């Protein structure tokens, strides 16, 4: 299937990974499953907190993170309805299966001395809202096992205001299928109109010209920091 089927992890920068681990384990009940030197990145730690066996919240700490100023309304939204700069994290919503689970999470979070707003019924999901360390805006939601019905929740007014044509809308609702060609697709040519990762220009050019098999061989690090008995 040539589309993602879930979130493997999302990574959040932190200047204090211990405080984040304490909060996410104690307040939200997640398990710490990895904490190691981030592969290929100098002076940087990577931590993973388990949502399920294939999905984690990840944190990245380096000396550089603490040198970057936090500014609500730019680097962080501050709450789930506020703005932040384009491309930055607005809020994170975690899933639970039922409304009872949602209310239990509200009680758990409040029992740790953290304020919680809600729950609120949004029609296709119910949610609670709260803050995390370093001005994270967090949410827990449940759709109680029901899928979102596009026919009811795609507002024609907003579609028009967003500049989306009827033809585009149909394409967005039913993306084209992809058939993988017999041979790997090569790197596309540089194009400033397409998203690009931010590396120094000479490094980025070298990376893009390096064959995939060389990247795999040279950049992969598969050994865990702790050797387990066989």
Describe the structure in brief.
This protein is of the alpha/beta class and about 230 residues long. Helices cover about 25% and strands about 20% of the residues.
Can you walk through the features of this model?
- With 230 residues, the protein is an alpha/beta fold.
- The protein has a domain at 9-148: 2,3-Dihydroxybiphenyl 1,2-Dioxygenase, domain 1 (Roll), CATH 3.10.180.10.
- Helices cover 25% and strands 22% of the residues.
- The protein has helices at residues 17-26, 99-111, 150-153, 156-161, 166-173, 201-209, 212-219, and strands spanning 9-14, 31-37, 45-52, 55-61, 92-95, 117-121, 126-132, 136-142.
- Strands 1-4-3-2 form a 4-stranded mixed beta sheet, with helices on one face. A 4-stranded mixed beta sheet has the order 5-8-7-6.
- The radius of gyration is 21 Å and the shape is globular.
- The mean pLDDT is 95.
The count of DSSP E runs of length 2 or more, i.e. the number of strands, is 8
What is the end-to-end distance? 34 Å
Sketch the major β-sheet. Answer: 4 strands, mixed
Number of helical stretches of at least 4 residues: 7
pLDDT averaged over residues: 95
Helix and strand succession? EHEEEEHEEEHHHHH
Share of helix, binned: 25-40%
CATH superfamily of the domain at 9-148: 2,3-Dihydroxybiphenyl 1,2-Dioxygenase, domain 1
* CATH structural architecture of the domain at 9-148: Roll
Low-confidence stretches: none
Write the layout of secondary structure elements.
Blueprint: E1 9-14, H1 17-26, E2 31-37, E3 45-52, E4 55-61, E5 92-95, H2 99-111, E6 117-121, E7 126-132, E8 136-142, H3 150-153, H4 156-161, H5 166-173, H6 201-209, H7 212-219
């Amino acid at each position: 299937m040539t589309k993602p089927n879930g979130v493997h992890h999302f990574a959040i920068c932190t200047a204090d990974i211990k405080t984040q681990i304490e909060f996410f384990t104690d307040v939200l009940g997640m398990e710490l499953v990895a904490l190691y030197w981030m592969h290929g990145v100098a002076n940087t730690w990577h931590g993973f907190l388990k949502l399920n066996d294939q999905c984690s919240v990840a944190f990245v700490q380096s000396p550089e993170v603490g040198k970057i100023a936090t500014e609500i309304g730019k680097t962080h939204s501050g709450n789930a309805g506020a703005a932040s700069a384009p491309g930055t994290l607005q809020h994170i919503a975690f899933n639970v299966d039922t409304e009872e689970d949602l209310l239990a999470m509200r009680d758990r979070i409040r029992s740790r001395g953290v304020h919680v707003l809600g729950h609120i019924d949004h029609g296709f999901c119910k949610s609670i809202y709260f803050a995390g360390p370093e001005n994270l805006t967090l949410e827990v939601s449940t759709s109680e096992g029901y899928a979102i019905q596009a026919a009811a929740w795609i507002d024609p007014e907003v579609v028009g205001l967003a500049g989306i044509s009827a033809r585009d809308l149909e394409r967005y609702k039913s993306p084209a299928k992809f058939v993988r060609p017999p041979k790997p697709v090569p790197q596309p040519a540089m194009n400033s109109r397409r998203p690009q990762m931010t590396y120094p220009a000479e490094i980025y050019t070298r990376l893009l010209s390096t064959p995939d098999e060389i990247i795999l061989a040279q950049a992969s690090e598969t050994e865990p920091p702790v050797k387990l008995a066989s």
